[in-house]
Design brief:
Belongs to the glycosyl hydrolase 10 (cellulase F) family. GO terms for molecular function: endo-1,4-beta-xylanase activity. Keywords: Carbohydrate metabolism, Glycosidase, Hydrolase, Polysaccharide degradation, Secreted, Signal, Xylan degradation. Its EC number is 3.2.1.8. This protein has an eight-stranded parallel barrel, surrounded by six helices. The radius of gyration is 22 Å and the shape is globular. The chain has one domain: TIM Barrel (Alpha-Beta Barrel). The termini are far apart. β8, α14 and β9 form a beta-alpha-beta unit. It contains 16 helices and ten strands. By secondary structure, it is α/β, with parallel strands linked by helices. α3 packs parallel to α16 and α14 packs parallel to α16. It binds ligand 9MR.
């Protein structure tokens, strides 16, 4: 009797779970299996290259590569991804955690993977106010010492990867939103010429790598984008090496700047290339059919802009899957920003990418 009660409770529980999971969730505010899946059979890097771009790519990080074989297998498919960016492995805190002690193990692993897969590598990044070890940020180094420390870091990291990196984010996020230069130890100690010195050291270390300045909130017209135009034209007029501007493109659903393509054109008119370097489009959770459809449209809008601009060389998503996105831990209640879902299945956003390269 007791066993029957336990068993029947178990069966009821199972039935409840089955019903709850299988019940069709229709109407607004819900997600249906059909609306969740991508329908395209085209391959994202193949269509990017057919559109004249160098690549469609993704950021990646070592913990995920080491622990998730399915994730790694999808990332390694060069019909999907023609380019990799190291999400953290080449940053200052990862590569020179103690002064003069360089560790390249994680970065090397990503470069080796890209080479084995026939994928282009972007380098990210050498000089940035974040993810700095305290021996740099809190050092109190004087001007001459910090210049030498910075030049040594740029030369050693870029030199280590000489010939293996297509484009380097040499200087990362140098601006405030109002277009003034951001306060960080380099700006505060060396002044604005830290940018010149970093770019010159990078050119000397790998003359064939494309040298980029990378930033966010420069994807549409505004004070910050104007400041980037002014900086790059000033660098070029003074003969400081600069080859590209990275538009990070961490967007909010439904808020893609209407001036995105025009801004890319304003940048390329300076004689540099541009790349969409860190694309993701986050939504307020939970996902709904409507939000996924809007996300598809938004991905298409961004990729179409790059397709339309001859000197936009490629599009990189900042992790291809929601499973490993940086977004939820940074923006409470937001997420699902990437074109593959938590189960490594393609979302409607993937169809948007394919359509964007096909436009
Ligand atoms: O995705 C990166 C995350 O894993 C790190 O914790 C974070 C720390 O700053 O950096 C993230 O990547 C950033 C990139 O390096 C520069 N642009 C903004 C990215 C998202 O924060």
């Amino acid at each position: 009797m007791k066993s029957f009660v336990v068993q029947s409770t178990f069966v009821s529980l199972l039935a409840w779970i089955t019903l709850t999971v299988a019940l069709p969730q229709v109407g607004s505010g819900t997600v249906t299996a059909k609306a969740r899946a991508a329908t395209s059979t085209a391959r994202s890097n193949t269509v990017a290259q057919a559109a004249g771009k160098l690549y469609f790519g993704s950021a990646t990080d070592n913990p995920f590569l080491n622990e998730d074989a399915t994730y790694k297998a999808i990332l390694s498919d060069n019909t999907l991804f023609g380019q990799l960016s190291p999400e953290n492995a080449m940053k200052w805190d990862a590569t020179e955690p103690e002064q003069g002690v360089f560790t390249f193990t994680n970065g090397d692993a990503i470069v080796a993977l890209a080479q084995a897969n026939g994928q282009i590598m972007r380098g990210h990044n050498t000089v940035w106010g974040s993810q700095l070890p305290s021996w740099v940020s809190d050092s109190g180094f004087d001007n001459a010492t910090l210049i030498s420390v910075m030049q040594n870091h740029v030369s050693t990291v870029i030199g280590h990867y000489k010939g293996q990196i297509d484009g380097w984010d040499v200087v990362n996020e140098p601006f405030n939103d109002d277009g003034t230069l951001a306060s960080n130890v380099f700006f505060e100690t060396i002044g604005p010429t830290y940018i010149d010195l970093a770019l010159q050291a990078a050119r000397a270390a790998d003359p064939n790598a494309k040298l980029y300045i990378n930033d966010f909130n420069i994807e549409g017209e505004g004070a910050k984008a104007t400041a980037m135009v002014n900086l790059v034209s000033d660098l070029k007029s003074r003969g400081i090496p600069i080859d590209g501007i990275g538009l990070e493109s961490h967007f909010i659903l439904g808020e893609i700047p209407t001036t995105l393509q025009a801004q890319m054109e304003a940048f390329t008119a300076l004689g540099v290339e541009v790349a969409v370097t860190e694309l993701d489009i986050r939504m307020t959770l939970p996902e709904t059919d409507a939000l996924l459809a809007q996300q598809q449209t938004d991905y298409q809008t961004v990729v179409s802009a790059c397709t339309a601009v001859a000197d936009c060389v490629g599009v990189t998503v900042w992790e291809y899957t929601d499973k490993y996105s940086w977004v939820p831990s940074t923006f409470a209640g937001q997420g699902d920003a990437d074109p593959w879902d938590e189960n490594l299945e393609m979302k409607p956003a993937y169809d948007g990418i394919i359509a964007g390269f096909s436009s």
